[in-house]
Design a protein that fits this description.
binds NADP nicotinamide-adenine-dinucleotide phosphate; alpha/beta; Rossmann fold
């Protein structure tokens, strides 16, 4: 896979899975927009790491849950690199809790950051992609959106929403040679996983057929595949990267 002539915007690329996706594309020659919300230093570090591969990158701050900020992010990315081929909607948060204790704010924050951001950024990118008659949109959902997870009504709903969004948009833009797919990670070793108490972590690993949690790089490889020419006949698909958990 090679992305030498491609421009990629990765939301939430300062840490975790987004960081790994930005580095994967950078290592394959793409020019990368590293979006972040608050972690400016980490985003700069990702930019430097991409440049060490000989590729170009820029860090752009934006809260992608905000419609105008998301639109400005996409516009700035396109202005900076002159084009946009691939959008990865990766930014996400958790605010776990049983529904009895979940606040309205916990619901709204997760819905806005995980789902509305996907609409915000895709809407901003799609006009450019339709004009060019080329585009790849990849949404990072979760197996929680397919299986449901107790204590995550907000998160599971937002992730299921991303799957519906992926399929609907895939149908809308297929005639313009734009593909829209989703990647559904299982348990991946990032800050989100580190917030899970150790005894619960052990129980969760027991239910993963491959017997271990995944690495961010393993998710990044799947994203790069779906963005590549090799995946040109795949659209509206949800690819699990979960050690077999949700099969
Ligand atoms: P993470 O390590 O906590 O990193 C989250 C990233 O999202 C950070 O770069 C953060 O930026 C960014 N972000 C958060 N809110 C944002 C906002 N409003 N605007 C822009 N950026 C924002 O999370 P992760 O584990 O890598 O998760 C990445 C994605 O994978 C999420 O969509 C998550 O739901 C999904 N996922 C993760 C797992 C897992 O086990 N880790 C499993 C399934 C799915 P700042 O650093 O600037 O705050």
């Amino acid at each position: 896979m090679e992305f030498k002539d491609k421009v990629v915007i990765v939301t939430g690329a300062s840490r975790g899975i987004g960081r790994a996706i930005a580095l994967e594309f950078g290592s394959l020659g793409a020019r990368v927009v590293v979006n972040y919300n608050s972690s400016a230093d980490s985003a700069d570090e990702v930019v430097q790491a991409v440049k060490e591969f000989g590729s170009d990158a820029i860090a752009l701050q934006a809260d992608v849950s905000d419609f105008d900020e998301a639109r400005n992010l996409i516009q700035q990315g396109i202005e900076h690199f002159g084009e946009l081929h691939i959008l990865v909607n990766n930014a996400g948060i958790t605010r776990d809790g049983l529904i009895m204790t979940m606040s309205e704010d916990d619901w709204d924050a997760v819905a806005a950051t995980n789902l509305k951001s996907t609409f915000n950024c895709s809407k901003a990118a799609i006009r450019h992609m339709m004009r060019k008659r080329y585009g790849r949109i990849i949404n990072i959902t979760s197996i929680s959106g397919k299986m449901g997870n107790a204590g995550q009504t907000n998160y599971s709903a937002s992730k299921a929403g991303q799957i519906g969004f992926t399929k609907a948009l895939a149908r809308e833009v297929a005639s313009r040679k734009i593909t829209v797919n989703a990647v559904a990670p299982g348990f991946i070793e990032t800050n989100i996983w580190e917030t899970v108490p150790e005894d619960i972590q052990a129980g969760l690993i027991d239910i993963i057929p491959l017997g271990r949690i995944g690495a961010p790089q393993e998710v990044a490889k799947a994203v790069a595949f779906l963005a590549s020419d090799e995946a040109s006949y795949i659209t509206g698909h949800v690819l699990n990267v979960d050690g077999g958990m949700a099969m």
